[in-house]
Amino acid sequence: MAVDMKVTLCGKVLKNPVIAASGTFAFGQQHSWLIDVSRLGGIALKSLTPEKRVGNKPPRIAETASGIVNSVGLQNPGVDVFLEKMMKRVALFDTAIIANIAGRSIDDYVAVIQKLNETSIDFFELNISCPNVRMGGASFGTDEGMARDCVMAAKAVSKKPMIVKLTPAAGDIVRIARAAESAGADALSLINTIPAMAVDAKTKRPILGNVTGGLSGPCIKPVALKMVYDVSRAVSVPVIGIGGIMTGEDAAEFMLCGATAVMAGTANLVDPEAPLRIIDELTAYAKTMNIDNITALTGALEV
Hints:
CATH superfamily: Aldolase class I
Oligomer: single chain
Strand order of the largest sheet: 3-4-7-8-9-10-15-16
Number of helices: 11
Helix content: 25-40%
Number of domains: 1
Shape: globular
Strand content: 15-25%
Radius of gyration: 18 Å
Number of strands: 16
Largest sheet: 8 strands, parallel, barrel
CATH architecture: Alpha-Beta Barrel
CATH class: Alpha Beta
Order of helices and strands: EEEHEEEHHEHEHHEHEEEEEHEHEHH
CATH topology: TIM Barrel
Low-confidence stretches: 132-137
Structural class: alpha/beta
């Protein structure tokens, strides 16, 4: 039985619902040497800010039970260098491209969007949820008013569909989701990493140079599933599920909970071929369940 794996996100048809998550696929160039990125539903690029960011001091990643704690700190070359040296190569990828945008202020988000508006990028993903920076980041995503103001300002200048990435640290993530939707978000992606830390008992010191970071991987999947389930029932815009997706069945679970598409992140750090395997496993799952169109999974959880 053939399975139609195409999904529609904000009016654009994706080849399948599996997207490489921001921060784990860089700008796609290195992975394109290893895998056929055109098979992916999409690629979310590494976060871009108005100016170059060197990120946090090392160590930046600590392994923990069923996951990692990272504190990269949005290291990136800045939007101008990206446009000059990387955009031409990114434009060649035969898949949907999502530019993840971060900043210290609302003006930062607006500035990056304005510089990317005339490119072939398909979507903007507004990162209001990174826990690894001291200014901006998750502070926008945990305050309803700040989230609304940031999304509204970004949407006012954007010429692309706007995905807003939400933080699990919001307390009431549904409240923030509704605020983002009311401000003009075309879709929501969730969840970003959970604020966390790792400690070395022998040295009596934090493992990360930044002391704290964000937890990701299979350990956060139950939390992410619950938040995707809650948010998808509270908003009318599409939801992209993120959080510990390592297999095709993981992806299916997020879609059952209401996700239109999914993003695989930590899995890419373990195995560069992981997103392709997830696509194949999701396809095989659909065949086993006699599903001929993958969109039938979205919101089909029986409760």
